Amino acid sequence: MRPLSYGDERHQAAHQFLVEEAALLDAGDYQGWLGLLADDIGYLMPVRVTTARGAGFDSLADMAHFDENLYSLRKRVQRLYTEHAWTEDPPSRTRHFVANVRTFATEGAELAVESGLLLFRSRGDTREADLVSAGRRDLLRPAGGGLLLARREITVDESVLRTQNLAVFL
Amino acid sequence: MTDLAGVIAEVRRGLVPAHIYNDAEVFALERDRLFSRAWVFVAHESEIPDPGDYVVRRVLADSFIVVRDEARAVRVLFNMCLHKGMAVCRAELGNASHFRCPYHAWTYRNDGRLAGLPFHADAYGGEDGFAREGQSLLPAPAMASYNGLIFVSLRPDPPALTEYLGNFAYYLDFYTRQSPAGVELRGPQRWRVKANWKIGAENFAGDSYHTPHTHASVVDIGLFREPKASKRKEGALYTAGPGSGTTYKLPPGGTFDEQLRYVGYPHELIAAMRATWSREQQELIAESGFMVSAATLFPNLSFVHNWPVVDAAGTVAPFISVRQWQPVSERETEVLSWFAVDAAAPDDFKRRSYQAYLMCFGSSGMFEQDDVENWVSITDMAGGSMARRLRLNSRMGLTSDDKPIKPPLAGFAGPGVAYQGFGEFNQRHWLAQWSDHLEQP
Questions:
Q1: What is the pLDDT of residues A8-24, one digit of tens each?
Q2: Chain A residues closer than 8 Å to B369 by CB
Q3: Rounded to a whole number, what is the distance in Å from the CA of A53 to chain B's nearest CA?
Q4: pTM for the full model?
Q5: How many of the other CB atoms lie within 10 Å of CB of B117?
Q6: Option in A75, A160, A164 nearest B376 (CB)
């Protein structure tokens, strides 16, 4: 299937959605981020594995780093706003770089959007910074004149993560 | 040069020289004196159910293929070609009847035997120059399993695994044998943290004291079934054989079934547990009123069992995680974290339990996130010269003349020694075994 033209308004809206989302995450506005999620959100990040070329799979079907719904995402956000989420206090400095955005029309009103994500995460003053590189496949649903994230599947590009935890969203 | 005898003497007093958590010399000793001979976990049999299924796992720098051969026997094979030493398997899991070295195409059956090499007659003059018969990838010097947990030892003559596990096996069953079907392991999630491997092992062995503060946030958000984290002080800490662990005190007066329902098990699984666990094992839950939580089997395998709230309706679901603290260096550890669930449990329970696991532990788990922040920071602090002057007080639960501040818990059905309340008995128990290994040349 061919992506929508970059001049297509639907592509531009999807691209803008992802960039605005990244801005919320990098500002630590997780409450604002929750506002971008559909009630039936599925947020999945399978465990990636190293397999032979002919194996037919390169991620685990039954184990993920994230396999979330709105309840669990809300709890994760709620936790970050407590006074006791030590792993993010002091907070990480993050930058979500969104690139390679391709938008596809679907049979319904939703847009299927692929993007590349590079997360730079710096903790403390002297620690080596972490990089997490991933591809994302999203479903964006038109709602109330804007878009909501209805589904995200994150394909992380490492099988062994080199960041101390996923107290961050991708 | 580290004064090893001095370090060990202090460790045994419960005054731990801080630098052992980030010290290249200590790490070299751990490699040469501990991981060179201890029983070390590599995989669970449920990860390789069918002939040809394999996973590749490490014991420090040594890579092993853990594979089920065509006769369904589990083999643990050193992943290095006999000829020039390339890794014969470069995937981390899959299914294969043979492993072929990419360098010169020496090929091995999945039981390790050499099946062939190119130009045998031309290059070697046939069997005379190189006898193929009896050639095999090097097997792990010793291998054994318990409840499907596969362990290896790099020493060819270790004590029998069951003898090593001793009465910790009683506790292992709570995590790895809830029914005759046994558990299935999923994962692992793998990630690397800039922390010394000992810190996680000690924490899971017995640190109930960190829960009220480190994990205050999960109480704040109502994820924790137990309304107050300080409830941990009513729990018991036990040491048994090479393992030790923590428990929670259950509500008073409940039967076996009621207590397991309280932590969220469905009736099918409770019936299976009743039919599977011994009378003595059931008494720990019913009569003594304790439920197992975190535990560590020396040296680097840990377990956790907890029961959070997994949805807005307040549904409580228990989960089990098996995890390994795989040392990379004195200041880096690879965490391998599996979700474990009874293989015969109902599917909807498996789903709830999996959600509970993901929310609490593993790479994104809300408990684990804050744990690792602590461990990275300790390792960072332990690397400098001031850490060589600091003795970390690990004497909790002892008087100045080395007596327990209270007697062992009477009426604790499990084997070994148990104390109720906070204490660092288990961490000292773990460190005593560490000391035993390190002082043995």
A1: 999 999 999 999 999 99
A2: 85, 87, 165-167
A3: 9
A4: 0.97
A5: 20
A6: A164
